Amino acid sequence: MAAQDPRLMGVRPNGMMDTPEYRVDVNWDRAGALGVPLSSIHSTVATAFGSSYVNDFIQAGRVKKVYVQADAPYRRLPQDMEKLYVRNTAGKMVPFSAFASGRWTQGAPKLERYNAFPSMNIQGQPAPGRSTGEAMTAMEELVGKLPQGISFDWSGLSYQERMATKQGPTLYAFSILVIFLCVAALYESWTIPLANLLMLPLGVFGAIVASSWREMPNDVYFQIGFLTTMGLSTKNAILIIQFIKERMGAGQGLIEATLDAVKTRFRPVMMTSLAFFFGVLPLAIASGAGAGAMNALGTAVCGGMLSATFIDLIFIPLFFVLVSQLFGGKKDKQKDKQQPVKKFDTPNKPEVQSV
């Protein structure tokens, strides 16, 4: 099923193919009736066809080990097993053929285990244009169609990716929180950073559109570019809002200061943004070794930079004015209520009487 899924390619089991093997079947009831212990059967076969350590002896001042094993001509063929004898509990020798038989079959030369359970290691890769996350999701869907009692687990890089994917929403939320706190510390205000945060979707929109247009997968390199775009989206807003606050501090009104700041900061914003765009553009069009990582990162950052530059120039002043009128107006009213009204007595002017 996995080999036929269009989201996957190169799916294959990672293991050795079944090979011919000689299987020995022991009739345990007959062995028990003959008084042959289980340990004696195992030790006899292991010693004859393998080897068993007996003791050491000294020869020419050197210690040498003694191993017991059947001679080579008597352990070459499966029929040689019928020539073995096993001692029973009564001390008599019982022929091996009296309670065991052998047959040829097919089996795995190596037993695969994962967490002490019989397992099969399956490897593969995503199809072109598909991400590793989509490929892992496809495998999980296929495993869900298997009979009950069959489970799965990830290992290696797939396990690390699955663990890192669970932390993705937390990291994005933490990044937004850090941006908010940094901007709040810069402006010494809790309301003005909201205008900066409203810019994030516009920059992220360009990164998603550019990566989707080039059919880039949602991999770790795209996510790095995604986070970079979030920071760059607030950069243009900082350049304009800081200038607005300076003009308002000089006595200009909100609308007048906003329009003046946009006109004045238009050239610096365009120069810095385009300089960064053309600096990252070689990553988006790179080729050769490692081009996949560079293309994914460069495409996300270039797309986000374009949208953060041209779209934000329109919405930055709009959002700042809306946030300032929404929260700033309430603060001004509260200040007016808190400040006492001072009354000044005007001196009486002398009345001029006409004669």
Automatic annotation (TrEMBL):
InterPro entries for this protein: AcrB_DN_DC_subdom, Acrflvin-R
Pfam families: ACR_tran
Keyword Magnesium found: no
Cellular component terms (Gene Ontology): plasma membrane
Keyword Transmembrane tagged: yes
UniProt GO MF annotations: xenobiotic transmembrane transporter activity
Record-annotated membrane-spanning stretches: 170-187, 194-214, 274-294, 306-327
Keyword list, A-Z: Membrane, Transmembrane, Transmembrane helix
Domain of life: Bacteria
Biased amino acid composition, Basic and acidic residues: 330-348
Chain intervals for the UniProt region annotation (Disordered): 330-355
Name of the protein described by the UniProt record: Hydrophobe/amphiphile efflux-1 (HAE1) family protein
Source species: Candidatus Electrothrix aarhusensis
